[in-house]
Each structure stands twice: as structure tokens, then as C-alpha cells.
Amino acid sequence: MGRKIKKGVKGEVSQYITRSKAIRKLQVSLKDFRRLCILKGIYPREPKKKFEGNTKTYYHVKDINFLAHDQLLDKFREIATALRKHRKALRKDDKDKAQRIKENIPKYTLNHVIKERYPTFVDALRDLDDPLSLMNLFAAFPAHHLHGIPSHKVQMAIRLSREFNYYVIKSHSLRKVFLSIKGIYYQAEAQGQAITWITPYFFTQKMPIDLDYKVMITFLEFYEALMKFVNFKLYKSIGLAYPPKVDVDLVNAQAFSYKAMIADNLHTDIEQKMQSLDDQKYQISKEFEQDQEVKKINEKYQTSGSTLFKKLVFFLNREVPKYSLEFVIQAFGGEVLWDTDDVNIDDERITHVVTDRDPSQLKMNKNKEYVQPQWVYDSVNNKILLPVQEYAPGKILPPHLSPFVDSKEEGGYKPQRQKDLEKLKGEMEPEEDEELEEGKDGDMEEEEEDEEETQQFDAERKLDQLRKLEKREQKERKELGQTVMGRKKKRLYDKIAHARDQTAKKGEKLREKRDKLAMKERKKAKGIEDDDDSSDEE
Predict the structure, then answer these.
(1) What is the side-by-side order of every strand in the sheet holding 184-190?
(2) Which of 58, 475, 484, 513 is most buried by a 10 A CB count?
(3) Residue 474's pLDDT band (boundaries 50, 70, 90)?
(4) Do the Cβ atoms of 345 and 315 come closer than 8 Å?
(5) What's the pLDDT score for residue 286?
(6) Whole-model pTM?
(7) Which phi and psi angles does 313 have, rounded to 5°?
């Protein structure tokens, strides 16, 4: 007989541990255990067999052993001890001792945690979407005593989010903007990494009662440390001193503006000359520049539209989202003004007035363009200054298309507005051009096709036969390949095929929806015409 294995020594039972056991092992409170897990990036795991019931939360034993050897755990224990002594001193009415203990409560930093979780700077940039979204969310929150949101946390979130936006403005690295129901989505590019985040609209925030704000504040604590590191490195990469200074007098006079932020240049003239010499040393050779792939990459970066609004001066009316528009316009090289003691709408420098008012309430000036806010965002997404006629005050705006949606992922479906924009930019594909021209000269094409069919009937029939043979061979090869495939590869292939079919169905549904809407509009227009004809007859 073999040796009998004890219970809990081998298998999944030995690899996983419940939360209550983990807390007892680490000798911390539930609150500190949660904080420790959030800061260190440890999350619950789901074992295949839940050996202590479905209601329990499980962690991997290796993760708990990893937490047990962290210096944060010792700090949490020291803080808990100090707080117990503070409460004891208060119960004894020894206020001096209580005050002394409170002032000397141990403090900790998260520098080692940042280094552990993000070994390289690129790793930190890849994980910046959530930190930026949470920072902007807390920047819109009011300080709340009942929910435990302190004012200094809100102020820090505002500061860090503005500092990152200022870097985006200075580096001209903003790429996409989209106005959604949830908020405003932005995408910037830093050191080759796309960073996408969302900011809420500046309305009065209603604070839900059923949210656990303490967990959110713990995440915010970690993200604060991360954002300070990231902002410092980003500013240094473009030669700016961190943190930037803020002109308090200008902020007090006009409310906040990115013009009030000033960052000193770190590089001296000698360093700049050395940098330019290094850049010249690593220039692309003329032979390599002719390569098609290199040309595409160069064109991509040259047409990023970073100076789209250069030499344009925008005046923002009170009713438009001022901070968002200022950020976007300055990131693309424009200048922003609004109504203050020194500036008004009659200023001669102003080229565009961004307003959302009724035209009857505006005093139009012939030397200025009057547009609705959507014109700025649509121009940025399409990297060209769109015609202003469609975006004039009081007009029904064209659809605001998301730059984050790829037509290939939507089953090849393209809205009509996207086709119009591509035609305007000169990016229309030949097949799409043909589709648009079909409606104009359909009769002529049909006649030409009939003649070609009569002349080349035999040749086409042979081509059809060849195509059928090719399709049959491809189908046979596919079936043969599937039979040879292993179980895992077959499962993966089926998943890919299913995803492809779902995408095609999605595109088909969108096309059907578009056709139905077009049919409705035609019927509506026909009904109006019929009514006009009948009234004329009467």
C-alpha cells in the first residue's frame, strides 16, 4: 500500500486559502487587508472546486505569502498600535499624550510598490487609463464628510489631472476626442503608448449612497503616487521642470486656465545644441526614407494634426464646456479667449466664436466664424478644418461619430456621414466611389454592362467555372485542415469563426437599420409631395 496523503497537503486545497484564514495568518483587520490587496495588486482567485463552500472568497497561497513579507504590513501594524494608544489616552482624558501620539503616527510611502508593479516606464503608461479616469472623477467630486472624501484628496486629484493635461498640451500628443452620455473620452499618445481616459461633465454631482467610497479612496491613494512618478518622467522627457508653477493672481482673476500654468525649461542652450547634434547623428538615410513602410510611418506622424488650429483664436461663450474646449484647442496649437475684464467678443484677434445660443440672441460679425462646440471635436477627429456651414448656430448638427469605432469590427458597415467625411478628405476607397456614382448614372452603366455581357459571355462563363473550382478546392483544403487539427486548435478556430460570423451579422443588422430609415424618409418625402400635388389639383 502507498503512503496515505493527509487532507489539505496536496492539490487545490493546498494552493488556495479563504479570506478569513488569510486575515488570521497576516494578523490584520479586514479594512487593512483590503487596503493591502489593492495597493499590492492582489485579487481573489476562483479555484475549480470551492472546497469550503460557494459563499467564501479565495486567494492564492503564494499571493498571501507575498503580502506577508511586505514592509507595508509592518507599517499597518504600527499604525494600528498607535491608534489604540491614542484611543486609550483619550479615554483617560490625557489630551497632551493623545496629541503627541497623533502627531507621531507612523507614515508610509508607496515608492517600492510602484517599482515592483511597474518595472519599466512603458508598463506604467500602459496602465494609465484607470488612474486618469479615477483622478478626473474625484476632481469633479465635492468634499464629503459622510462619505469620507477629504478636501485635500479632491485638490490633489484636480492638481494631478491638470498637470497631465498640461503635458498633453505642451507635447501636442492629443489624438482623439468623443462626447458620450457618460462623459468626454480623450486619447493621447505618450512614448508610443495610447492612453484613453474619460472625464465627467462639469455638473453638480449626485453622490450615490450604496457605493463604497473607502475602496475608491484606497485606489486613489495608489494612483496618486503613480501619477506623480509618471508626470515627473513625462515632463522631464520634453525638457520641462516638474511640478509646473501656477499664477495664483491670474487664477483668482479669471478662474482656472491652462495659460496660468508655467513650467520652466530644464535644458540650457548648450544642452539643446548637444541634443540637436545627437538628433542629426541618428537621421534616417535617404535610401531608407524611400521605403514604403517608412513613408507610411512618417506620413502618420506628419498628419497627426498637432497644429490644426495654429494661428486661430477662439472665443468661448459662457454656455459651452470651457475647460474641455480650452484643453482640446490648445493641444492642437490654437489660442483661447473668453469674456473677462481685458477681453470681449469684439476683439479683432478672434477668428472663431464657439457658441450654443440661438442665432437671434447673437450679434453676428462678418469677419468671424460662428460655430457650435461639436465643430471643434469633429475637426480634431478628422484632422482637417471641416466646413463651418453645417455647424452654424441654430442648425441641426450632423452625427457625431466615435473615432474609437473601426468599421472593420462593425462588419464593414460605414455610416453615410463617415463616407461623406472620407470623400471630403480624399480617402474614399474606389469601391465606395463606385457605389456613390451608381445612383447618378445608373442607366448608362446598365446599358454598357448589357453590351459587355453579350460580347464577353463565353469568357465570363469560363471565369465563373474557374472561380467555382477554386472555391471548391479552398473548401476541401479547409475541411481537410480541420480534420487534422488538434482539439485545442479546433476549439480556437471555432471561436475565431464564431466571432467573424457575429461581426458580419452586426454589420448586416446596421445596414438593414440604415435601409429602413432611408425608406421611411423616402416615404415621408413622397407623402409630402403627394399632399402638395393634391392641393394644387384642388
Answers:
(1) 174-179, 184-190, 193-199
(2) 58
(3) confident
(4) yes
(5) 61
(6) 0.76
(7) -120, 120
